[in-house]
Amino acid sequence: MKKVEAIIKPFKLDDVRESLAEIGITGMTVSEVKGFGRQKGHTELYRGAEYMVDFLPKVKIELVIQDDLLERAIDVIVDTARTGKIGDGKIFVTDVERVIRIRTGEENDEAV
């Protein structure tokens, strides 16, 4: 199994969720996060004073999926979240050694 963490622009969340559901991925965790990379933030004006906004709002989607769904999930996220502009985000993939469903005690594939 793999854990996929995708950091995307917030307005792309619903589109990505719907696209993942179309390929059979329905379970995910979504967090509102802030960060920056090459985008570096921007300046804003508030009550006549200019100030730097260092961290930009993003959304982090976390999925734990079977290995055979990995490439399709990545393709769907990339195709759906891409705007072609800086700040589209990143995808991180890591191995998952073990998953346990707390309610039933099921493990691994059955727990996902």
Keywords:
alpha+beta, single chain, 112 residues, 2 helices, four-stranded antiparallel sheet
How are the elements arranged and paired?
Elements: E1 2-8, H1 13-22, E2 29-35, E3 42-46, E4 49-53, E5 56-65, H2 70-81, E6 89-95
Antiparallel strand pairs: 1-5, 1-6, 2-5, 3-4
Helix pairs in contact: 1-2
Label the overall shape: elongated
Tell me the distance between the termini: 9 Å
Largest beta sheet: strand ordering: 2-5-1-6
Compute the number of helices.
Answer: 2
Report the major sheet: 4 strands, antiparallel
User: Which residue ranges are poorly predicted, with pLDDT under 50 across at least 5 consecutive positions?
Assistant: none
Descriptive report:
- Keywords: Nucleotide-binding, Phosphoprotein, Transcription, Transcription regulation.
- Homotrimer.
- It comes from Shewanella metallivivens.
- This protein has 112 residues and is of the alpha+beta class.
- It is 20% helix and 37% strand.
- The protein contains two helices and six strands.
- It has helices spanning 13-22, 70-81, and strands at 2-8, 29-35, 42-46, 49-53, 56-65, 89-95.
- Strands 2-5-1-6 form a four-stranded antiparallel sheet, covered by helices on one side. A two-stranded antiparallel sheet has the order 3-4.
- A hairpin with a 2-residue loop joins strand 3 and strand 4 (49-53).
- Helix 1 runs antiparallel to helix 2 (70-81).
- The protein starts with a strand and ends in a 17-residue tail after the last strand.
- The model has no long low-confidence stretch (mean pLDDT 89).
